Structures are given as C-alpha cells and as structure tokens.
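Model: Ready when you are.
Researcher: Fold this.
Model:
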Amino acid sequence: MKGIAHFVSGVAIATFFPEVVQQAAEGSLLPVLGGIAGILPDTLDFKFARYFEVYDEEIDPGPDPDAREIAEKVVGAMRRAYETGRPQNVVLHTIRLGTDLWRQYTIRFDPARNEVAVRIGPVVNTGQVPFPGSEPEGAEEVRVRVGVPMVHTYDAENRVDIFSGPSFKFVRKGDKLHVHFLDWHRRWSHSLTLAAVLGLGAIGIGALVEWLARGFLTRTPLWAGLVVGLGFTGHILEDQLGFMGSNLFYPFTRERAIGLQLLRSGDAIPNFLTVWLSVALVLFNLDRFSASPRLDGPVFLLLAVLLPLVLLGGLYQLQRWGKSEAKEALQQRDIVSETEEVEVR
C-alpha cells in the first residue's frame, strides 16, 4: 500500500476506541499517533535499514557502462554463492549523468535459459521519461550464462535508472540458487513482535513523561501504546494481502511469510479503496461515540463501507483475472512501487 493508505488506516484503527475519540475531541493527537505508527514500518526500512545493509559486491557501471561487464559481475557473485554456500549480497548502482539526467539500464534473470541479460538503455530525467535517440549506438542485450540452476527469480526486467539501484541476494538452498530482490525489505521492521515491543515502549515512555510532568498517571499512556501497536500491526496485515509478505515473528522466524496474493500494493483501486474505507470508518466512529449520533449505523456501513468494498473489490479482481503475470513479477512490482514512492517523496 502507499504511505497515505497506511497512514489513514492507522488513524481509523485508533478511532475504534471511545476514549481515544473523546480525548481527540479535547485536542489529543492520539489518532495521529496511530497514523504515524501506520507508516513506521516502511519508514524504518527505506530511511534506516537499507543504509546499514552490508554488500559483498557493489557494481558501479560508471558513465560509460559495459553491459557484458555488469552481467559477468552479477553472474560471478551467483557462482560464488553456489560454489561456496555463502550468500552473496549485490547492489547495482545507478548512472547519474547530471542534475536531472540518468543513464537507464536493465538486468533480467532468465531461469529458462539459465542466463543473466543486461541492456544499456536511454538517458532519462528524474521523471523517468526517456530522451529519444539517447540509447548508445548499437546497444544490444548481452547475455551471460550462469551455469548453476536458478529458481525463484524475477522474470520481469529490473530497470535501473534514478536515485538508488536495486540489490539482490543470492542464496544456495540444496542444489538450487535462489535470487531475493531487496532482501532487506519487510524483515525485522515488518514484525508483529516489533509491533508489540513498540506498543509496550510507548506505554512506558508515555507513563514516564506523564509522571514527570504531572506527578500522577492516567490511562492515556495505555491508549497511546494500544494505538501505536495496532497501527503498526495494521500496516503489516495490509502488506500480507499482497505478494511479498513479511517476516511476521522476527527474531523467532528468519524468512518472510508469503503474502495472500490478493492484490498488488501499488495498484490504484486497492489504495483508493483503503483510503475510502478508512475515512468512512473514521466518520462512523466519530459519530457513534459523540454525544448525539446522527448517522443510521447499519445504513451507513452498507452504503459507505460494504457496497464500495464489493463493487470496487469485485472490479479489481475481474481486472486481475484478465491478466496473466508470473507471481514473482507481481511480487517484484510491489516492492518497486514502494521504493519509487519513498524515494520521490
């Protein structure tokens, strides 16, 4: 989901508690705290965790990129991972030519042919718009054979152009080599364990601040912890509707749990529907916890929540059924859409 969808979801979750709504009416920012917790998992990943990732090899093509050299370096890392049994973490850097100019190139893992393919592309601006005729003269896709069996690779092209480039982790499991895209994403930061820890931490910090400021304790720290923990949890559960999934119980688990594959997190309809339903539920909760409710609850929920969910959700599933794409490619696009949103922001 996009950041705005996660934020509004966190606010909506907070409004399900009458005391939170009552405090908000008196000027409390508890619902906003729920929204902040809702966007926190991706913030931890894209603004913190990625910069502490350690790479075994960094591939910097330079201003005059050589497609074969790039492919051979990637294949070399893949073979090392397979031959030594030690995972290899590789990042491909972008090619910046100026303030608003980037040289685009693509890399593709082809398990059917057991090859890695690289092609040098056109010059693009920060909006990823290519300049006509800017491709290198005679540019062709270069293929290099891997020589070891690949599985779980992404059959869509991996486009490298603006801001930071993608990373791949090559891991041998049995007699197969697995390729993980952006291995640092949705691991410890997308854990229900961390949600519980943050909720308890918010209670403790809130209680300490309240005691130092007032000399006595109220239930506000408890509500703050609940809002933080549930807002964070809401983000993780929303991500599980997609393809990539999350490492739900880190550090007790080490692998990402596969998502339910019901939607692509970057698609317009799921994001619009999430924001719409969240706003509708906020209005519903604000009304029912007010001194004089005005909405007819069942009718409002039917028209503003259930009907849009059925109509738009059904339309989205019909659109998806009309397309045939590999699950790995859909999973990859989920991550790419999140990456581009965070970096542009």
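Researcher: Now this one.
Model:
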Amino acid sequence: MSILASIEKNLEKISDFLNLSNREMKLLLSYKAVHHAKLDVNGNKYDAWRIIHNNALGPGKGGIRFHSKVSEEEVKALAFWMSLKNSLMELPYGGAKGGVRIDPKKLSEEELQQLSRAYIRAFYKYLGQDKDIPAPDVYTNPKIMAYMLDEFEKLKGKHEPAMITGKPLILGGSPLRGDATSRGGKIILEEFLKHVKPKKKTIEVVIQGFGNAGMNIAKMLFPNYKIIAVSDSKGGILLQDGLNIADVIDVKQSTGAVVNYEGATKISNKELLELETDVLILAAIENQITLANADRIKAKYILELANGPVTADADSVLHERGIDVIPDILANAGGVVASYCEWAQNRAGNILPEEYILNTFESKMRSAFMKTFALYSKQKDFDMRSSAYAIAIKRIIAAEKARGHL
C-alpha cells in the first residue's frame, strides 16, 4: 500500500464520525503548493521539493530531508502528516515538508553546504517566518539549517532567524531541539503506560532504528526499562537479559553499526519486528508493519517515533488483535513543539528561561495525549490513530470554514 493510499484510507475511517462532505474530503486530500526544482551541485542535478499541504491554521511548518529515496509522493505524505501533527498539538501552523533526492553520505562538507544554499535559492520566495518555516529532518542537522538561514538572509537582505528552526544555539536555536522528538516520545509512552497500567514492573522494549531518535529514546529509557533488542540499517542485536545501552551507543558510534556489539544475538530487522515484547518502538522509516507481517507482530504496544511506519491495512489487523499503536502524529510531535518554542522566541526577540520552555513542551505533549486517549477510550471502534486524526482534522476543517473556504 502506498503512503498516500494509506492516508486516504485513514481519512475514510473517520469520515462518518466527523460527517465529512465530499468537498471537505477533497480539500483534505489536496495541496496548497507543490514546488519542484533541480539543484545543481558541481554540475550534478538533484530533484528537490517544498510542499505545503494546508495552511488554514498558520504558516507551513515541516522539515527538509536529504535522502536517496525522497520522492514527491513521500514529501506530500510527510506534509499531510505535519498538518495533522501541528493541528493536534494546537500549534499555529499548517503542514509542509521538503526533500532532496540525494545520498548525503557521498557529499563532502563543501558540497553539502552548496546543496543547502542551492535549496534555499530555489525556494526562498516561498519561505519565511510567516509563510513556511523549515526544520531538520532525515540527514539534515543544525549546521545545514545554519547554511540555509545564512543564504536566505543574504537573498532577503535582512535578518530573519525565525524563518527556520533547529539552528545552532549561537544563531537563535533552542537547547531543547536536539533530542526533542525522543523526549516527546518518552513523555507520550509514559503517559500511555500510566493509563493502561501493565501488570509487569519491568517493561521490555524493542527499538527499530538506532539513529538520532532511536538512540536518544534508548538513552532516556535505560535503565528503567529493559531494552532487549535494537537495530539499524545493517541489522539488529538481541539480548533477553537486557542490553547495556551506553555500550551499544559506543559500538554504534565507533563502528557505524550495532551488529558489532559483542555478547548479543545478531538478528534481522524482520526478526526484530516480530519479537515478543511489551513495547515496540518504530524509529526507522515508513511502511515497516504492513498487511504482510501484521499478524506476526507480538508486541503489546507500538510507539511510532518514525513517520508512517504502520500502514492503514496493518492498523486494522493490529487493532483487531488488541495491539495498541500510539500514532506518529502524537508520538513524534516533540520535534515540532520544540521548533515552535524556538520560532516564538525568535519572533519575539526574547530569550526565554529553559525551565519555561521545558514546561511548555511537556504541557503541550501531555495535553495532546489526554485528548487523544479520551476519545480513543470513548470510541471503542476507533484505534488511537483514528482518534488523533479526528481531533486534528476537526480543527483544520473549522479553520477552513472560518476563512469562508467551505
């Protein structure tokens, strides 16, 4: 199932509950702007996109990813999810996303800077603190955000730090942004566990994807949770007695792969997904649990730290089997909540105390969870994704109606 087909099916699940008209469904499945360009780096051309799904609630907001498999369909899906994520978190944003089809590992530092600046030159007319605000995503980071900010400000002839988030601290970035996705995921997971009250004292966890988000949430959960398996793109490792996450991180950082960790059983990503565990954290890429493997998943609860790792068809199977999926637009919203704090601070020209920012962050995450779980508890035929979608879409439709568009 394609990611856009999965999105459409998820919308259909809640259309009756929200009484969505054909016109409203058409609006939700359309895009405000789809921009495409060819970026030139040393004579090599790379496809690039900046897409806004919806901006009824505010300017576009969403990251830019550099990846060899980036496509227009993927960027559209990510922009759609950003619309829902921002709406669910009650942030003053619409949804947007950007991407460049490239393997950044093959570029030198100088070429990465050229690519980052070329991206801004291609799309700067559509960007800005009140238009569309990018941020880091897969294989982009604060350094790349700094290059992009610098290029934007040169082209505009003025300082505008709020046009991009995830910047280095020296350029107005937030200390919260680096591990915000993982921090938010941990808050959501712990709120969820408080409500479902598992009988076990020690919760077993499996993590697929040991990149930035997966590694950070592993650090935050260890040693209070028993992390029995982790994986990256090269494979995984399993130790039923629990992995020492500090040692796994050392191995990953020194050798580039968790499979080089001594004293654990080497397993494939396929085997990792089907392990018996309390919590399965999906922190890799889209479409990891599909109709093909949903009936073999043994985790009790799934936390989507990645975007779109469970397809709509698989959602139905998991729900029927009593497996709760904590959806991506809730579980991984920490990044954009931290970005909001950075953007607001830049807009105001004010430096807010870190404690205030952290309190705002935690309050936003917990509030969104409570709303989602409350609806999920009432609507027995809903899974948690349907509940989160319904809350988010209701706000978007209300904003479109207030503007006279519906």
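Researcher: Key takeaway?
Model: The CA atoms of residues 191 and 197 lie 10 Å apart.
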